Amino acid sequence: MEINWNEIESKWRNKWIENKDFETEPNDKPKKFITVAYPYPNSPQHIGHGRTYTLADVHARFYRMKGYNVLFPMGFHYTGTPVLGMAKRIESGEKEILDGLRNIYHVPEEDIKTFVEPIKIADYFHEEIKSGMIEMGYSIDWRREFTTIVPGYQKFIEWQITTLKENGKIIQGSHPVGWCPKDNNPVSQHDTMGDVEPKIDDKNYLVKFQFGDLVFPITTLRPETIFGITNFWVNPNVTYKKVTVDGEKWIVSEECAHKLKFFEKEVSVDGDIPGSQLIDRFVTSHNGNEIPILPADFVESGMGTGLVMSVPAHAPKDYQALTDLKAKKHKLASKIDPIPIITTEGYGVIPAKEICEKMGVANQIDQKLDEATNELYNKEFTTGKLNERCGEFQGIKVEFGRDKVREWLESNEHLEKFPVLENGPVRCRCGAECVVKILSNQWFLNYGDEDWKALARKCFDEMNILPNKIKTEFHDVVSWLHERACARQQGLGTKLPWDKDWIVESLSDSVIYMAYYTISRFVNEGKVNPENLTRELFDFILLDIGDLDSAAKSSQLSENLVSAMKKEFTYFYPVDSRHSGRDLVQNHLTFFVLNHVAIFEKKYWPQEIVVNGSVMMDGAKMSKSMGNIIPLRTAIREHGADPIRLAIISSAELLQDADFNMESVSGIQGKLQSLLDDCSKVKQGEIGNLEPEDRWILSKTQNLIGQVTDAVEKMRLREALHDILFSFESDLSWYNKRVQAKGRENNSAILYKINSDRVAMLSPFAPHVAEEMWVALGNNELVSKSAWPEFSKGLVDATAIQSEELLKSTIDDIANILKVTKITPKKIVIYVNSDEMKSKVYRKVLGIMVGGQNNMGVVMKELIADPETTAAKKMPDFIQKVIKDLHSESEEIKQMKLESDSFDEKEFLKSELSSIGKKEFGVEILVYSESDSDIYDPKGKARHARPFKPAILIE
To answer: What does the pLDDT read at residue 575?
Structure first.
């Protein structure tokens, strides 16, 4: 019968809810606290969002079956400006957003009309997302649910932000931030289109030159290169602005004039000056040199000041642009030679010329220039030294000289900071392009503090990060992090306790909220009111400051209730595993660690972070414009939650971007249907005397349990799922072939045992259909509440595995010979090795190769050095073939052979080959050892037999 996915999923969800299976409180079991980044409810979740939450749910369900008391809670992040910007766009009738709501997300018109109120948007999608999570079967304790604007949570945020300020982690000052000029608010990832975290480069500087009575300002990342300037570049097609900046007269592009207004500067526009009027005129440098201005169409008015300095000896783009201009016979350009100022090992006098020629750069639009620039800049920064043209800075390494030159220019008022958006353009959700703003008298989290960074690094080094290779990314983020605005003046959220004109910024209120999960149920159940959540109560519960009596009096709660709240926190904390997408490494996940180490004792620091990649649809990034966004609930209705879960998991390993396609969903549905049918056909019973194939399949099942358990613990879920559903199928197919060849009908109990283990391991991945399979197997309890199958090495019969592998390989060898020769066999004869020396040499080679060595020369030396196998020097061909035989086998099989007792190949093949051989090839198969006196060997094949590699004669 074909599975009705929605029907069975609804049935089992209701059962879990009825049993309150995922509601948990402290008990005597060891605990696991699994959390995942709570969603921002400004749209429904689509299949891409489902990946992170599905991975976390598999993790939670796995640990429940492993005997842990698992807490897996969920909240909703209302804080910030995204819904404000969205409401404004809806109110203005913006077509793109309205089309998305109607045609992709199918929001009813009566609800869309209410979306001019931001809170209505958040509430609508909150319920939509929650419904999708329930339909996906996520094993969440919903009693702990909260939003970030409910009074209880706001009390928690007031405590958190006050604690950080008192710990010296929040400062007031002037710092650059990403800024929306339309909303007049700092912006972070949640506030921008495409969820882009504005990354500010504050190592960009503005250097001032003189142009008559005007300042000619240039932005650069490399102030030390001013000694090598040969010319300036100006775009003759751009109209520049004469502006007054804090009393100085400057020439800059119109875009730059706009940006300067956000730098705490008084800026007024005095007039225009065409770029063409600047060409072939001269600028005075810091040392009095007259430097020409040359034309360059490649200069972008939106970059920096719209004016560019040229250092052709060390900047490949400048060198090539100057070369191109000389080719056009430009008079001034023809008189210019590059001025080398850096000596770098491996490069000659003019490094930019060398690298352009080496890479075959053709002209100034050649894409190879970016590669050339990066390579040369990195080399000069790490190994280059400033030369005699740099005056007092001669002989200083570039990486130190850069700061010294900067300080010198700054002291002479030739330089000031010009922070830029490194990853611009970034757009606010309201549609405006973001800028960098210098905020004064603003509140900042002092993430630039080196002592704080050191604590975070210690936490990252000691915690488990999956996959481990991403740990370096966290260290990189900690290194470049600097002060970050933690308050804003618009949006939903919690008022800054000491300055009510400000609201705690959205990422700043979402860093330690996992602690609130442990007490939120007391608030939700009405046992605790928001006004009871005093500073003293939080200090006692979360920081162990104060005592029970004072916490109870302050909060006006009973001592029993306060004790219960503290017990809940101390039992479940710390977070055992935090799941999130890779896009949050550069902000939320790093802040999560920084804020934990700033507030909590070391015993409460996070234990693990799990990071996953994103999801693509049929090879393309999901986007509304591509029309490939599928809302999660739509996919569930049409295809079922379990097939969607498995398609998401099976499409990629953890950090890879998953490529989701509906074709895989259909294949998975068929696979699950087949396994359900198989479960319906077997019955529990006594397992009697075991045949060789029974011992083999039961041993393979044990190995499967071990492999899957290890893979899930390391969050290699694709690998685990593939082992359960697909890889093991080939073993079952062989087993069934063996059973059928013998005409057996007494193996139902063995299949029951195997399928029970498979279904139990499938349960965290496909929880609904696994419950259905569990019932089909005749069980009364829930598989989700059963124990995870335990691997037992003692139940792995190494001899059974190697003997069955011998049988399989022999059958395969016969089939291959028949395929190549196209013979219709009348007689098949197998010859097995019985030479004791061959066996000794084989075992010795096996041991050497399991140790990791397969070089023929090394193997031969070890064989000759051992008195037991010194005769191997007369058998080089045999040894070469043995190495080849073993090289083609898995490490698992080689290890099994090494661990197993030797067995009689002849007796095993004689007893087991006849039934399957007759079925496969239609003839009797004779088996001899090469030393048998009655051997039939007309072609002298027997002498070629090797251990586990019989010789074969087919007539």
So the answer is: 98
